[in-house]
Specification:
With 251 residues, the protein is an alpha+beta fold. The chain has helices at 16-24, 66-81, 85-93, 95-101, 114-127, 231-248; strands at 5-12, 51-54, 56-58, 107-110, 139-147, 152-156, 165-172, 177-182, 187-190, 197-201, 207-212, 218-225.
């Protein structure tokens, strides 16, 4: 299998800024399937080892987008075929709200905690290094994800829009924690170290999962960056931008 992911070389953070938040909110992580006001609640009967701590919340005053509407209709058809009539009613009764929730760009309301605000500001400043492109590099649906020791995040695909990037930054990890990638014919495993670098892959196309074979909990910062479809070229432009301003400051 060709290497399925990309890693930044120049864009990176200090993991300590995220560890500080993890330590403060260690008891506030929750199973995403347990939220009764989310479409993810239809999966409540499944085993859930992954836990979230959201750094941003959904702005439900925004409009739904076509991709969200299409996805909710798809879920309704699947649940109907499975005979899960309660889930079908649940999705139908909350149709507009869940369509808004499925648009990751609507997750833009931050916690009031100054540490979280500082982290989000730092990420936004970094990813929006060229502020003339005001719609690019915005940080959306930022969250910290915990995978307990011995746990797994089963293979799945995500629904991130193709014009955006879903970005992963390992914060606390171990050599025995593996990111798995699977196609119809192949499967490969990689360890992503906690160096502050960011990783991305075509998460809406390739099946991926995480498997924690260590004796520690794994933490990762995950967020969506708007209107950037190639992390490699964006990372390169960030480096050029840094060099330009460094040299300009000496003039």
């Amino acid at each position: 299998m060709k290497k399925p992911f990309e890693r930044t070389w120049h864009l990176k953070i200090d993991p300590k800024s995220v560890i500080k938040i993890i330590e403060k909110y260690r008891d506030d992580f929750f199973c995403p399937f347990s939220k009764i006001d989310s479409y993810l609640n239809i999966y409540k009967k499944r085993e859930c080892e992954v836990q979230f701590f959201n750094l941003q919340h959904c702005d439900y005053t925004q409009d739904p987008n076509p991709d969200g509407q299409k996805y909710i209709r798809y879920l309704m058809s699947v649940e109907k075929k499975l005979g899960n009539n309660d889930n079908v009613k649940f999705l139908k009764d909350n149709y507009e709200k869940f369509c808004i929730e499925l648009n990751e760009e609507n997750f833009s309301i931050p916690y009031t905690d100054p540490d979280i605000k500082d982290l989000l500001t730092s990420l936004t400043t970094m990813w929006r290094f060229d502020h003339s492109q005001i719609n690019k590099g915005l940080i959306r649906r930022a969250r910290i994800v915990r995978l307990p020791s011995g746990g797994s995040m089963p293979y799945h695909r995500d629904e991130t829009a193709s014009k955006n990037l879903r970005v992963i930054c390992p914060i606390i990890t171990d050599q025995f924690i593996k990111n798995g990638f699977r196609t119809k014919d192949e499967e490969a495993f990689y360890n992503f170290p906690a160096t502050g670098h960011f990783y991305t892959f075509e998460e809406h196309k390739i099946e991926h999962g995480v498997f924690n074979g260590s004796d520690i909990d794994r933490y990762a910062l995950i967020f969506t960056v708007t209107n950037i479809d190639s992390m490699k070229s964006w990372d390169r432009e960030y480096y050029k931008n840094q060099i330009y301003w460094k040299n300009w400051g000496k003039v």
